[in-house]
Amino acid sequence: MSDALAIKQAAEWIRQADGLLVTAGAGMGVDSGLPDFRGPGGFWRAYPALKHHGYTFEEMANPGGFVRHPRLAWGFYGHRLALYRATLPHDGFQTLLRWRARMKAGAFVFTSNVDSQFQRAGFSAERIEECHGAIDSLQCADACTDDTWSANGFVPIVDMNRCELINSMPRCPNCGGLARPNILMFGDWNWIGARTDQQMQRLSSWLERVERLVVIELGAGRA
Known about the structure:
By secondary structure, the chain is an alpha/beta fold. It has one domain (about 20-220): SIR2/SIRT2 'Small Domain' (2-Layer Sandwich). It is built from 9 helices and 9 strands. It has a 4-stranded parallel beta sheet, sandwiched between helices. A 3-stranded antiparallel beta sheet has the order 5-4-8, sandwiched between helices. Strands 6-7 form a two-stranded antiparallel sheet.
């Protein structure tokens, strides 16, 4: 099938659908200016201080970092949190919102991204499943409770020459211990998935109401 015919067929599927399921990976944020950390080169370009130390993305995106060097771990995640807050979603999000508005059941988003860009673009938080969690949600690093809470009150200040958090680290309101992002990390033994489980249940309920579903995959294969 030619590209023109494929585009015409896709447009017809979207026109006929009564529900839109958007599946999105790391490449979705690239056009907004967000790094995707693919390969050591991409990660170290974004965080040259960590290249100096020889840390890989897999080593930084690891709960052990909050034990070994919490200020470095929060420097990495705090910078990302501030970056995501300051980033405007690109125009592609608005295109999806326009398609959603034409459909009886609207849209639902399933994403491995933790940047909350869909919420910032105008998608309802009740119609998003973040399978790896979200950086703007916090949990106890020791998982003393299954609670998660918003990071809205935390404004990170990071020394990028060292990639270390300068100001006070967030604390668990239950035990007073260190808090961390509610993100599923590599080798993560303490991730609290209750929030994502609730999102998954809402997605399952929504799918039961959709008769003509169209699925769009975005950003998963972007190099």
